Amino acid sequence: MSAIKVVTLTSSLIISGLLLSGCSWFFSDETEPETPDTEEEIPVDENDTEDTDTDPEEDPEDEDETEAEIEQDVTVWFPQLEDTLLDYEGQGNEFAPFTRYPQFVKDDTLQMVESTGGTDVVTIYAYSDEEVREVFKRAETYFREDFDDTGLASEQEDFEIILQQPLEVGHSWESPSGSTAEITGVNIEKDLPIGTVLTLEVTRLFDNGSEIIEYYGEDFGLVERVFHVDDEEDTISSTLNTLSEDTPEEIQLTVYSVDDQAMGLDSTPVTMELYTNEPARLAIAEILKGQAPDTETAQVIADGVDINFMYLRQDGVVHADFSVELTDMNAGSGVEAMILQGIVNTIGEYYGVEDVLITLDNEPYESGHILMEEGETWSVDHSNVN
Asked: In Å, how far from its chain's centre is CA 37?
């Protein structure tokens, strides 16, 4: 045992480990090692630069890694919500408050309507593995239509890329509109009226010098929007105030039906309630049949009549195709013409157009009293409205 030498701190840890593990080479199970009477002081190398006091929780590199660890799935930050009304409170402008509602949700698209005090804007967002971008936009749209199916061209060609991977601070991209966006913050906690939400911050710059900062909440989508105008101190902000699930979109409709004396048309205001993915034509058919609330006395068509399809064409004409049972009116030519005028006024006013094409199973309208030519339309006319 006197041959065992003291190993200093400057020896490598590997050799120390080998010596410690090698004690079994010197001692048998029945032999106990001798313990020295006094402890030797082990000299400390002052040139040793290893920092043994570093707290791993305070390591800046660890902080960066934590900051970067966010969910990369873009649908988490811009989800395809259904049957959910989002209400935003606003400051700085009369149009700052608005609502959003998901009208149609498909595998890779979301059609959303944003309603302010001035207009309703419908936008279709397309999803891919890497990004979410706008692919359709139409302002002044006060009716519901699945624009992805009807093929109506967008009124705007310059779209924005909403989010793009990688979702990390510093990543930037340029949209077809010419704006430049950058992720300027991740894992930001926002205290909102709906509660504390973990958000992703995106700053978007435009050619005119204006700037929009948008915050996308995990599982919520857009939760706050702050608009800065160049050279102006005032800001316009919109913040998510309430989120109402299992809620329909409410759309106003006026029904025009023949009055009791068959002398003119009565008008009845109705509120349609449409959930996500519900087409308006089915609800309008029920209303025209008098089967919806508050429409019992305003029946226009018979119970067995269906609207096969209805959409706004590129030329501004609405094409509404009914089942052939529409002609089973048991009415004279004057009343039949008045019923058709009520249908045209109801549909035309709903879409905000002047002309409506009515067909029967995709053929020109034809009855015992009225025969329409191929492509011939009716015009909205309020001259006989009571």
From this structure: 77
